[in-house]
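3.2 Worked example (two chains)
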Amino acid sequence: MPVRFFLEGYLGSLERTMQLPPNFNPRGGGRTKGYRYSAADCDCRYCVNAPKPRKSCSVSLTNCPCLAERLESGCLHAADLIASLLPDIRFPKLRQRVGELTAERTVNDIFFASTHHQGLFNGVIRDGGLRHSSDTGLLAALFLLTSNGFLWNRARFAVWRSRIAFEDISIRGITEAKIDNYAIYKAAKELCADNGGCHICPQELADETLVGEKAFSLIVNAMLIKRYGLAAVKAGSDIFS
C-alpha cells in the first residue's frame, strides 16, 4: 500500500491520482446500463412453471412471477391485460361488456383518449414525481381526471403530490358538458385508494346508456393502471414516453 502524506483535500486527491499505475482507467461510479428484456427472453415455454414437454405456462397473468419483465419486453398488450380482469368480474353483464372490449382491442389502439390527454397525463406524472409511485390508485384516478379538459379544470387545484382532495372538486354542471364526465369522475373516486365506499356500481358500468363506449374504455384502462401500474400504459400504447 503506498504511503500518503495528505489524507484529504485538494492535495490528497492530487496525491492519489499521482500514485495510480500508468495508463490506468479510473473505475466508474458503479452504474451499469440496465438490461432490457426482449420477447424472446419472456417466452412462456421456458418458464419453470410450464408443464413438460415445453408448453404454455399454466400460471394466471395476475400471478405470473415474470409479469414485470413481460410488460417491459412489450410481449403483452392491453387486450391481454384486459382479459386478466375477467375472472374477477362477478356481474355477468359487466363481464360481457369487458369481454367485448377485449375482442375489439387491437395492438395499434391508443391507450389515451387523445394525444392531448397523453401529454397532460405524462406532464402531471413527471412534474409530480410520480413516475415510480406505488400508489396505483392515485395514478389511475389521475389518468381519468386528465382525460378531458372539463374534468381537469375542476380537479387540477385539488391534486397534491400524494393525494387527490375530491371534497374540493366542484362537480356542478358536470353532466351538462357531457354525461360521461360524471361516470369518469365517480370511477376516479372509486379507484383512488383513500376514498372508501362505493361510488360507481357494476350495473352502472354495464349500462351503455349511462357510460358510453369511449368512457368505458378509459375506465377499463384506468383499472389496468390500478392493478399493474404505469407498465399497463406501456402495454397499451407504444407512444408512451
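3.2.1 Second chain
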Amino acid sequence: MNIEAISLSLLGEAFEELSEAVCENWEGNEEPSPVLISKAMLQLLEVLTQNEAETSPRNRLNPEEIDELGEYGLTLLQEMSAIAYDLGLNDSAEQIEDLTFPFAVWLSRHNVELRKIDPVVNSLTRKASMISEPHLLKQLFNYVNEIIDSLSPSISQDLEKTSQDRPWRVLLINRALIAARTHDTELMKIAFDMLAESLPEEASRFFEEIVEQMHIVNYPDHVREVLQHYFLMHGTSHTLH
C-alpha cells in the first residue's frame, strides 16, 4: 500500500487480493479458516466505510463500537498473516501484516486506543527500511506520531523492560532513525528528545551507534551537528562521568 494513502477502500482491495492467495493454498480443517477470516475482515471494513459515509449522528457507530471493531480488525489481520506464514507464503504474510500500519493510522484518526501494536511495529520496521525519499520519510514520521498519540498507557508506560522487541522500544528507535534519515533537524529533535526522556539507556546506545555510522551514511553537515550534539549530551561515555 502507498505510504501516502490512508484509505479503508484501498486497504480492503489489498487485503482481498492477498487473502485470496492464502485461501487458495489452505487445505486444513482448523477454525477459524482463512475464508472466514477474510469474510469477517471485509465485512468489518465495509461497516466502517459505511459509518464514515453516514450523515446522521444517531445512525453512526459510537466510539466504543469503533474501538471494538478496530481491535478486532487488527486481530483478524494478524491471524491471516500467521496462516500465510504457516503455509510458507512469507511475502503474502508480510504484506498482510503491513496492512496493520495504515489501519492503525486510520484508527488513530478516529480516536481508537491502540493496545495491540506488535504487527504494526513489525510493519513500520519494514516500511522504514524500504523508503528513502525524504518526503515519504516525513510522512511516515507523521504517521508514527499519530500512532504514538493513540497508544494505550499499558504500552507507553513501558513497564516491562526485559524484552528488546517490546513495541514501545522498537517504535521510538524506529522513529528516531526515520527522523535522522529525513535530514529535518526539527523532526530529529522531537524524536531524539522523546527517546532520551523515555528510554535513556537505549538512547545512549542509539546516539553512539548512529554517530559511528555518520561517515558511512554520509549525513549532511547540519544533520551531523545535531547527531553530535545528542551524542555529547546522552552518549554512554559522557553520561558515566
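3.3 Remarks
The two ends are 47 Å apart (CA to CA).
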